[in-house]
Design a protein that fits this description.
single chain, mainly alpha, Arc Repressor Mutant, subunit A, 3-stranded antiparallel beta sheet, two-stranded parallel sheet, 20 helices, 11 strands
Length: 494
Amino acid sequence: MASASGSPVRVRFCPSPTGNPHVGLVRTALFNWAFAKHHGGTLVFRIEDTDAARDSEESYAQLLDSMRWLGFDWDEGPEVGGPHAPYRQSQRMDLYRDVAAKLLDAGHAYHCYCSQEELDSRREAARAAGKPSGYDGHCRELTGAQVEEYKAQGREPIVRFRMPDETITFTDLVRGELTFTPENVPDYGIVRANGAPLYTLVNPVDDALMEITHVLRGEDLLSSTPRQVALYKALTELGIAKRTPAFGHLPYVMGEGNKKLSKRDPQASLNLYRERGFLPEGLLNYLSLLGWSLSADQDVFTIDEMVAAFDIADVQPNPARFDLKKCEAINGDHIRMLDVKDFTERCAPWLKAPVAPWAPEAFDEAKWQAIAPHAQTRLKVLSEITDNVDFLFLPEPVFDEASWTKAMKEGSDALLRTAREKLDAADWTSAESLKEAVLAAGEAHGLKLGKAQAPVRVAVTGRTVGLPLFESLEVLGKEQTLARIDAALERLAA
């Protein structure tokens, strides 16, 4: 696809390296990446690191690592390069100073000497009078004498962009036609008094110089769009920009209590999902549903299927609620979509020290390979594998006291003795034979299989729920199974 001007699609993802990546940020990156892939376009990865007080190299490295983990391959940006390098704003300051000077020379911007106290006072007066409280244009048309007087007072001016006195209308790719009247979009600052350029300047200037055709970003930035539309018009007049990009503002991601999901919310951190063992493809599948859908009756799909179908026009403007349980369920579906070899490899970090509770030498690869297909059917996240298979590699099960009390009812000792006798005589190369042994033990005590297997499961694994019991017994082996039933009988006797 080409843009409205006929140019190939170019989108950008431009986070700030401050703290852990946020799942809302990931959703924005996903929609930009999928849009570029769908149209055979270019994804520009740009780092907005002009806030020295908040940005850090650690967060920068984490951003790159997260992008790689998620599978977002960028066409231009850090570590890749490209025709518009550098791709870190902190390395582009000369460009911004040059553009600001050109805007001033052409009359699209002006120096503003107002102090913060003066601005606050005038805004308060405007609010009291029921008028818009934005900047009132006080320094728009200063005389030479007024400028000299301010300079004599030692005032250092900021640079403000001069908004045109006209209504601004643009078509949002998600929300349709939007109109902003002049009184609601006042002149705004683009350079601080110390000469540092503001986001209001550097973001659109970078988009212009990097020839971005579509800006897909969060709804929280919608109010800044009319200002940027006016700035693009000025940049185009100066030959700095070739066009005004098309804008699409993505819906809020909501957390608990109808509030926007913030960085402070526990479920917002991407690192949390990595640590819990979400698959990138499972997490991205769920995040794509926050504002978009493949079809009305299909929630689970591959990233390739998403890319093939993705259209920004299908994104809904309404806020999307983050549902952790649904996210986990979809991730579980993606775990089951893996081939077993891939599944076993992805579980590896949770089967080794320091995460695994067993000694390294206790891990048995043959047992792991045998149980893996059964474990794969049960997990929602990969980190659950540790608790599911620990009974295979620990010298004895870790008993959950509540599970023990629940399973070991009156008569459980007699049932376990019968089950031990039947299992001792069973065929240990067949999980079905082990099931028949426990079924027979239950029948001998007037119990159905469900109640008969509960004490056996807790005696052997320590838990009331887990992997399929009889396949687990087969993998654990006859000697250890019978020894654990004996230990449970001793505990019951005590």
